[in-house]
Specification:
Two copies of one chain form a homodimer. By secondary structure, chain A is α/β, with parallel strands linked by helices. Chain A has three domains: 71 residues, Arc Repressor Mutant, subunit A (Orthogonal Bundle), CATH 1.10.10; 115 residues, 2-Layer Sandwich (Nucleotidyltransferase, domain 5); 130 residues, Nucleotidyltransferase, domain 5 (2-Layer Sandwich), CATH 3.30.420. Chain A contains twelve helices and 15 strands. In chain A, the strands form four sheets. A five-stranded mixed β-sheet of chain A has the order 6-5-4-7-8, sandwiched between helices. In chain A, helix 6 crosses helix 12. The longest helix of chain A has 22 residues. The interface between A and B is large, with 75 and 75 residues. Chain A binds a DNA duplex (30 and 30 nucleotides) through helix 1, helix 2 and helix 3.
DNA sequence: GCATTTAGGCAAGAGTCCTTCCTAGAATGG
DNA sequence: CCATTCTAGGAAGGACTCTTGCCTAAATGC
């Protein structure tokens, strides 16, 4: 708190600001003449001309060879050179998706593979030289500092002992961001303070506060398996143990047997247990709404909402919009890639 | 996410940056010659001279009349004029504290009064013209948008129906920031991801994530009274109800009877209940440590830590450093006051 | 064929930063 | 007591960046 950091005034600062305007305009427009850039940024034509001259000399923008047609003098189109790509990947037990995203936000290549251990192969398939950075969604808890998957008690790693950063390091020449799939799904919702509760084979929750997913110290915030809640006979019980007590786990595993659960008549007991967890979420995170996703979360939204409405404090529940965890991962990758390009071109 | 906001390059930007450097230096040093400011900021003497000329003309800095003594030419000391004050107040059922803080971080006036309803009077006592802003700590849940106290189920307002912003509005000519005392206490700890659990007559918790207290949508994040936990016979029970079941509440109230509690032999039951709440905190916030404060929280840290250590996931507990909720409130007020002075002087 | 339109360049002006040098005045030391 | 040393402040000059305004070249449309 209170660390005031004031940049020194300098003409270099102004110059880099102009350059940044030019680069970001070309990221939006793909190509533009100096006059078009001036109009789009609100800066004057001579300023843009100077900036383009600098950036051309350093190779940060290039003359595409194309020329305007139409009335008036022929203009020269400028564009960004091949600026590298970002890798966006999704890892689940059902398979891997790898995508290459360019600085315009275009998905320029895509590959899928059946097993999570084929991450490297899928990434290599969409590679075209080293990636400038990677953003990965994984269906397991993630350590926010190392990017490695974290084994929590009673929750075997769905993806096995895969070391994501190590698997990608040879292909990526920059930062590798890894986060949980539930957190990525939450980032796609346009709310500032809410929680995203995922109820499927695994249990998960993302807490969004002040517009950002809060990951906590190690990155496993929202791993709700051990929250104490109401079990079968009103007994206090950890959330994950409720499924054991009801015989709704898959054989020799702590994973929930979803088909069996959906076919069972345990609506009420489970809704009560979920309502207990929701009480903890509301108490600690104070969300505006709780978005409920996952196969049985969505199917049983009704009884869950009914049980939760009995609680002394409650908030509205809403089904998750059918979203893809890659949407937010792509957006993050694009933002990081653009920032990397701008800072590479403006820093010296 | 991804909203890139780039400031336009302009010479005015540089000028305001120089002015800000000068102003912030004078806030630290109280008075300085142009040469001293130049040395402190790293900017050149002519630049500082220009800035001081501008700021003197607008009245944002003044010649104090003092002159340097010592070898060399006599220098002119400049300083900030009377720049207004910030009000810092603390409200508890035991009484009110009001302080006036100036732009140097000095407490220039202080008043106390026995009842919370004397907020206006205490504030008026330390006033010297209108305050530029106010920062208030209140021993009740606070709505982060309105600054009003929030009545939650089973938790009567300790301070009554006091409307803090309305009480202060006539004295304050700017923003009024109100927050819970537990949140202020947490802000005084130098950690980025942790929770602060307060166990006294009331129950409270602050969640600090990524270096900031997270208040949630309405501002009542951390109000843990309704978290489901383990009650007397292993029954699932809301935290606040545990005290009712054990007969540890004050008469006709939901407040905890602390002397009775400390004299009771309910260590184990209560430690188990607290451990259940800690499980929820760890699951949802993933803190590095949990700082435990409040009269019986500190006294019973041992049994609580013992019970919590049985949980499948746990983090270290630590007693709260004997802190004053006003420390962080003062720091916030000072930062806001300085920002206000800088922006008033640099904007036009 | 000529007015219109448009990209880009040039020139001038204002403003901010810096480095370097100069000056006035005060304390220090022989 | 006087030369020396030290320091705050100012002035000069150069380097840049921004803007406005004007000019030129080339293509279109009537």
């Amino acid at each position: 708190m209170g660390v005031v950091e004031t940049t020194k005034p300098s003409l270099e600062l102004l110059r880099s600001l102009s350059d940044e305007h030019v680069l970001r305009t070309l990221m939006r427009e793909r190509r533009a003449t100096r006059a078009e850039i001036a109009a789009a940024t609100g800066l004057s034509k001579p300023t843009i001309s100077e900036s383009v001259k600098r950036l051309s000399a350093s190779g940060a923008v290039v003359d595409t060879g194309e020329r305007t047609t139409g009335r008036g003098r022929v203009g020269t189109y400028y564009a960004l050179p091949a600026s590298g790509r970002a890798l966006v990947a999704s890892l689940a037990s059902t398979g891997v998706v790898a995508e290459a995203v360019d600085v315009y936000g275009e998905i320029v290549a895509r590959a899928t593979a059946p097993g999570a251990d084929e991450l490297h192969g899928a990434a290599q398939e969409v590679a075209d030289g080293p990636f400038r950075l990677a953003v990965v969604s994984a269906a397991d808890p993630v350590d926010r500092h190392t990017g490695r998957l974290v084994a929590l008690p009673d929750a075997p790693l769905e993806l096995g002992a895969l070391d994501v950063p190590a698997a990608l390091a040879p292909l990526v020449d920059g930062p590798i961001t890894v986060d949980n799939d539930v957190n990525w799904a939450a980032r796609a919702e346009p709310l500032r303070d809410f929680a995203y509760l995922f109820l499927g084979e695994g249990l998960g929750c993302a807490v969004v506060s002040d517009g950002e997913v809060r990951r906590g110290h190690t990155g496993v915030a929202g791993e709700i398996a051990h929250v104490v809640t109401v079990g079968p006979d009103g007994a206090a019980m950890r959330f994950t143990d409720v499924f054991g007590a009801l015989g709704l786990r898959r054989a020799r595993s702590t994973a929930i047997d979803v088909p069996k659960l959906l076919a069972s008549d345990a609506h009420e007991t489970l809704a009560g247990a979920v309502a207990g967890v929701l009480s903890a979420i509301v108490a600690l995170a104070d969300p505006e709404v709780v978005v409920v996703g996952g196969p049985w979360g969505r199917a049983w939204l009704e009884p869950i909402a009914h049980a939760f409405a009995q609680a002394p404090r409650h908030v509205p529940l809403r089904p998750a919009t059918v979203g893809d965890e890659l949407v937010a991962a792509r957006a993050t990758a694009l933002e990081q890639l653009r920032d990397a390009v701008v800072s590479a071109a403006t820093q010296r």
